[in-house]
Every structure is written in structure tokens, then in C-alpha cells.
Amino acid sequence: MSASGAGAAEARRYTKKDFESDQDVRWCPGCGDYAILSAVQKSMPDLDIPKENIVFISGIGCSSRFPYYMNTYGFHTIHGRAPAIATGLKLARPDLKIFVVTGDGDGLSIGGNHLLHVLRRNVGVTVLLFNNRIYGLTKGQYSPTSEQGKVTKSTPMGSADRPVNPLSFALGCGATFVGRTIDRDIRHMEETLKRAAHHKGTGFLEILQNCNVYNDLAWNVVYEKESKLQHELKLEHGKPLLFGPPDDRKAVVMEGVMPKVVSAKSVPESALWIHDETNLNAAKLLADLWTPEFPIPVGVLTARPAPTYEEVLLEQERRAISDRGPGDIAKLLVSGDTWKIE
Amino acid sequence: MQSGANPDGATWRKGCAPGLDKGKGQRSMSETVAPVKGTEKPRKGLERAVIRFAGDSGDGMQLTGEQFTTESAWAGNDIATLPNFPAEIRAPAGTLFGVSSFQLQFGSQRVYTPGDRLDCLVAMNPAALKVHLRDLKPGGLLIVNTAAFDKRNLDKAGYAQNPLDDPALAERYRLHKVDMTGLTHEAIKDLALNTKEKDRTKNFFALGLVSWIYTRPLEPTLGWINKKFAKSADIAEANTRVLKAGHAFGETAEIFGEHYTVDAADMAPGLYRAMTGNRALAWGLLAAAERSKVAIVYGAYPITPASGILEELAMHKRFRIRTIQAEDEIAAVTAAIGASFGGAIGVTGSSGPGIALKGEGIGLAVTAELPLVVLNIQRAGPSTGMPTKTEQADLMQALYGRNSESPVAVLAPATPGDCFYVAYEAVRIAAKYMMPVIVLSDGFLANGSEPWLIPDVNTLPPIDIQFRTSADGFFPYLRDPATLARPWVRPGTPGLEHRIGGIEKQDVTGNISYDPENHDHMVKTRAEKVRRVAQEIPPTTINGPATGDLLVVGWGGTYGAITAAVERAQTEGKSVASVHLRHLNPLPPDLGHILREYRKVLVPEINSGQLVRVLRAEYLVDAVGFNRVRGLPLASEEIYEAIVQLIGSKA
Lengths: 342, 651
Known about the structure:
The complex is a heterodimer. Chain A has a domain at about 10-220 and about 305-315: Thiamin diphosphate (ThDP)-binding fold, Pyr/PP domains (Rossmann fold, 3-Layer(aba) Sandwich), CATH 3.40.50. Chain A has 11 helices and 14 strands.
């Protein structure tokens, strides 16, 4: 399965190195973005797409420097607008494989409207949202995913706003692919990246990412070894929702219309919640699970086939041409009411 | 509602005849009386006439005006139209702010404007009479639908007494009281339609009557009815009968003593069609896509008065055009920029408030050096302002309305039909110079129409777009020595993978650069690139003597009013010329020289003085503004008066 039919057959075999640009990477030492960059570069060869057919589009923020470091086509645009730029590009060039790189501020604050619409339209682009729950490039103000009460330079007595959950937001917008991964879990990140990139339509992937300067260890619950073992729920299609250490496995099951955590041993196999990526309602429930009451789901919450925006529009174009032939401006100019002056 | 505020604004009071009749002084209805044949009523020949149909939003006045326009086009007249309607979709019936009107001027001579003052007003209800009567010339023809003058409608229009009962009205105007509603119902009483459906056809009674008064052919309207209502025979029959009933009423009723003819105008031979500004912009883009063989992606968010362009383009999917109705104005411009990055021509269109939102995006296209065409259909502001009313107050916004040094090319069409050529030229310049081009149309041009001589598309200048494909010596900001344009590369081209963006770049390599000298160099380079567009500008056309007392300089939709005023002054022997600027940035290279050939310079604009500031700053000339900002086109009469006044003044 190729993401966009972007010339898979002719692709030569690439290595990670082919996707590294000649630019010096300028993130802070220790930034989670390095791991993401590396994982993306490493995943690219497996897409089987000629690299000249790949485009990275970004907005503004630390994450948005990303295109400069990829040896593909790239466009570092303006704050929040990358999904809209990508939509125009995809409509003009449906043959290209397009990635949008954004962050929690770029994607969910200033660009929230565009993220909504790229998702509901199901434009064939892959959206990577680096979520570090803070504004890094502007030096440490709270972000739309910061927890309520967050003390930052702009909120010395704590932030008043409640955070938005990127996964619930995406699902609410009608996203056909929603996933979550972690910058410190390289293998999982690579796997999930490829799944998102291969999705036909908008592949939305939240990457929990560490800002070691302004919000260090915001995701420690899934970083610290013991905590990760206790709280991380790795989603796998067709497998039950089980998590926790081997000697204390727990299950997420449904009780009425509410999810509930129980000891895995306490329920019969038939009562387990089997993860089904095609079930949108189940994905919506999963998106809201969080510690301490629940585990933190990572992986693919949903992946559902649906026609893409560009497919629908191009089909209309084909139909218009097959019905009435290609446009001819000279004929158009003399169509309808005309009159001659001798 | 507030006193004095009405949909048309309190205007067009000054002056009298339009004064467009070359060498014949001021008069409107006169001239020869045609020989009377048999019992036919006498028929007077006119050179021109100005008519306004006015009624409730639901009375179908726009359609009536459009049909009358088509009939006049058939009659071979030159025409200019002015539709005027409230912003409310269905304004409450009978109210002053719910009045909708359609004005046109048609003539056997060149017609530059829809006319200043009316020869004939058709008022379908009291509100329409109240709003529009002030524009009717003394002695003008006033036709009212008496059935609508009931207590309820009179109250809504704020009339304590029925104005039709005031003898002064009939003394001042040639008043014709016609029960159009009653006569309409009478004509179709046997048809199986309900009262509301029957009522709706009364506008065609008015159309039939006025068509008789001005000897218009009914064929185009009859043809239109049959086509439009092909699937509902009763409605077609009703409209046909009512149209003919109105026509016959003029012929037979005792009250109309005479009627008029307006001979065909002496126009350039060829095939003509009616053209509105918005459609012309859309078709100009289609022509550019066809000639350049490069697809156009049009991103837009619905906004009055620009939405018509999106709707028009969306109908033409067979052409190389793809449209996006974006989630907002910012997405509309950025989607267009994304398309340009992909090797299509990105175009966006809006009106002032939307252009304000696009500012940052336009800046991105400036620094990324990508082609982008931005259509601004200017409307009255600030903020929401008066969305359906015209203005030309966004010139400074186009020139400077972005952060930092952000130069773009700016073009302005002069007439509805000219929009076709300007849209085409905007694409050509944007692609050739790799830069944004802003087109300043306006609400008057957008909705107004004129008879348009259909061009041979092969005579349009070629749009030659070469995408860079060679990796040999490639850099993203290498520059063409003549245009300073950087290479345009389509993603998908092997070996040319590169990154661009909004951060300042080193020239040639395109690498991020914070170097002070490089930034200074890039600021100057982007400005110089825009200046080089001057090599595309043909010598300026001067309407009048090459040297003299006064030069009138205009731009955009005021072309007709200025030209009419200047030609009138010229026929009176005044030493006046005019130039009308299509290129507002850069300005024509010969303009500075031309300005110095006249003692005085007058700049009429529908703003508080924007071009006049540019001219004064650019050329150190003591140009004087003539500025009225009412949401309406300038009247040629008032420009004429300004000309006379300025020539007469000593300073």
C-alpha cells in the first residue's frame, strides 16, 4: 500500500542518510525533536517514495524548523497555517506525499481552525503534532495543552484555561486516522509514523515530546521506566486492552457506557475489550483515558478508510471534462447572449 | 432607521444633465420628433437616457434591470449599469432599507457611466419613491405602482399622507400612476397560479411598459422567459402575458402621450456580450490558465462583493482551474500559496476586510518569492462598513498594508470588461517576476456591466512559464538578470529538492541568514524586482492635449465618470486631459514627465486622498484631490465642476 501513489515502483532504495539535509540542526541540546527527526529520517526509506516527491510543510515554532533538516522539498511557512498551505498544495499536486509538522501551539492554538478543516476534509496529508505542552520558541509561556494551573512567565499565578486533548479534538473533527506515540520510544515512534504516513487521507499523529528547557519531563509518566510499565497501554488492532507489569496485568473493559480498569484475571476472555481501529466510538472513549484513573493509550486509536478531499474534487473535474470536453476559452467567450455590430 | 441613511446614500443631488452630449450643451430629452405613422403615438429620438427601476428587495428589480439592459444591447446602444441592493438577503418588505434598485444609462454615443441624474424612475412602492425621487430630474418621467401605496406601505416608508395625492408631485415630474398589480392580475386571471405567484410577475409589467416607452425589442426577454421557465409552462405564460400587457398598456393608455427611440451607438465592429467585472476577472484567469498551460488554484472565503468570482470559477471545472472554499481568509490565501509552491498559479480573492486578514500570507509570498494573485473587490469600510457599496480606499492597504518592507505589484481595472485583461496581466506578471500581484477592483465594477467587444484570445500576450528542471548550478534564489525572479521548481523534480520559508534568506543559496548586510540587500532586491515590472508598462495614453492647464489622473472604477467629465470640459474648449492608471505599483515610467506638462493636476478618488498622496510623494507635484466617500461611484457632474473650479482658481 502506497500512501499516495507517489511513484512507488521507481523508487530507489534509500537510507536514512539520503534524507539528512546539509543544514546544522538548531534545536536545544537534549530536545525531543532530535529523536523525532531521526525517526522520521529513518522511516522515510520504507515509504518507497522517490524523495523528490516528498514535501514537508510547517508553520512556526520549534517543531516547524523541521523541514530545513529534511533533504526533501520543504516549506517553512507562517504560524498555524501549514494545514491550509498543504491543502492547496495537495489540490494542485495530488501526486506528492505531503507531511505537515506542527506543535501544540501552532496546531491547536493559532492554527486550530486549519487543523479542524484539514481533518474534516480528509486531505491526503500526514500531520505530525509535536506536543510538549509549552511554548518553547517564545521562551516558556503555557500552551493550549498545558495542564490547568500551569505556572509560566505569562501565568505567574497559574493558567486559568483547561487543556485541549489533541486526540479528542482530532476525532471530533472527523479524523480518519488518529495515533499517539512518544519521542523516547524510538521503535514505537517509527512504527506509528509509518502507519500514519501510509494512511490514505489525513493521518494525524500526536507525538509526546520533551522540552527539556521550559517543560522538562512533562511526560515523565511515560518516560520513567517503572511508571511507563504501570501506565502505558499499547494499542494493537484485534488485541485486548491489557496493560501493566506481567505479574499485575490489568484490563480496560466497558461497564455500561463507561470504561473501567479491572484486574485482567478477574474477567473472562470474552469480556475483554478488543481494540478495533475501525470503531470510531471506541476511539473516542480511548482518547479520553489518562492517568491516574486510567492507562495512557499509545498507538493507533483509529484508522478508517474514507474518500479524500482531493479524490472527490478530481473526480468532479474528470466528470465535467468527460461530460462536456475540456474547457476552451474562445468558445466560452462567445457562449450565451452575444450580438454583432457591423 | 437613522435619518438620512438610506440604501443609496444621500447623493446625486447636485447638477443637472450628465452633459455627455458632445458639443450640444446640456439637455436630456429633446431632439427630433419622428413622423407619426397612422395612429401611432409620436416618437422622439434621444441620444441617451438614464433609467432606474426601484422597488422592494422581493420585487425583482435586478432582473428587470438586467433584462432591460439586454434589450438595449440588442438595440445596439452603448450601456453602463449600476445595480444597487441592500446587504440584507430578504430585508423586511416595504422598508426604506429594503429598497433595491437597478440603474442604467444607454445611448447612441459613447456611454461612460450609469448616469448621474435620472430621466425616468420606476417606483414599485412608497419606500422606493422616497429613497430615489431626489435623483429624478425635474420634468422627468415618474412611473409608480399605485397598488403598493396602501396605508401599511406608506407607514413603513414614513409618509403621513399619500405622496401621489400631492399635486406638487405631478407639477414637478411627469407622473404616471399605474395600478401595475391590478393590471398584472387582470392579464393572467385565468391562469392556475396563486396570488403570490401572480404578484411576482408585476415587474415584467413595468419592464414591458418601459420597453414600450423607449422602443426596446421584447425578443430577448421573451426568449429569456421561455428558457428560464421551460419546465413551468404556466409561469412562462404568465410572464409573457404580463410583459406584453405592460407593453400594450403604453401603446393604448391615454396617459402616455409620446415615446422615445435611442439609435444604435457607433461602436467598434465585432461580436459583443454583456460583461460584469467579477465574471471578467474569472474569465481572465481562465484565459491565463489556458494560455500558460499551468493550472490555477483559487482559494476564497465567501465575502461580498467578491463571492461571485468563486462561484463563477467553480462552474468551470473543465478548464485548468481548481477552487477551494476555504475555512477562512487566511486559509484561502495560504492554500493559494501552497498551490504556487506546487507549480500551479495560486489566486485568492476577497474584499478589504478579508485582504486585511491575508496580509501575513501575502508577506510570505513576497519573501518566498512565489507567484500569487490577490483580487480585492473593494467595498465601503472600515471594518464591515457597507458591504454592498463601492469604494476605492484600499490603495494604501495594497501598497503598504503588511508588516515590514513588503512590496507587491498593484493593478487596477478601469471598466467591467477591462477586468478580463487585468486578471490575465496579473497572472502574467506574478509568474514572470515570482511575486504577489494585487488587483484592485471594486463593488461598482464587480456588479456593473457593459457591452464588451469579445477579444480574439490569440491576440493576448503569451504567458511563458518555464519550470527549472536542471540541477546544474541550481540554487533556490538564483536570479534572472532581467526580472530578478528566482527559479520556479515543481516539487517532484529530482535533484532540486530545496527548502524555502518565511525566515530571511541569503540571496542565491536561500539558506537562513540573519546577516545585516544580506537583509539590507534582500529588502532592496525585493523592491527592485517590483520596480522592474515597469518594463512591462506600455506608454501612458493621454486623453486630450499633451500639455495644458489641467491633467486629471484617476485609477480603477472612476474611469467612466472622469472621462465623461473631461470630454465635456474639452468640448467647451477647456485645456484639460486625463490619464487613467492601470499600474499603481510600479507607476508608469513616463508618468512623472507627463505630470509636469500641465499647470495643475486633479486626482478624483472614492477615498480621502490616497493616489494623490502617492503622486505628491513620488513626483513632488502639487496634485489636488477630489474626494467623496459615500459608497457610490463619483458622478461625472461633480468631477466636471471640480475641473472647472480648479482651472479657474489662481493658485
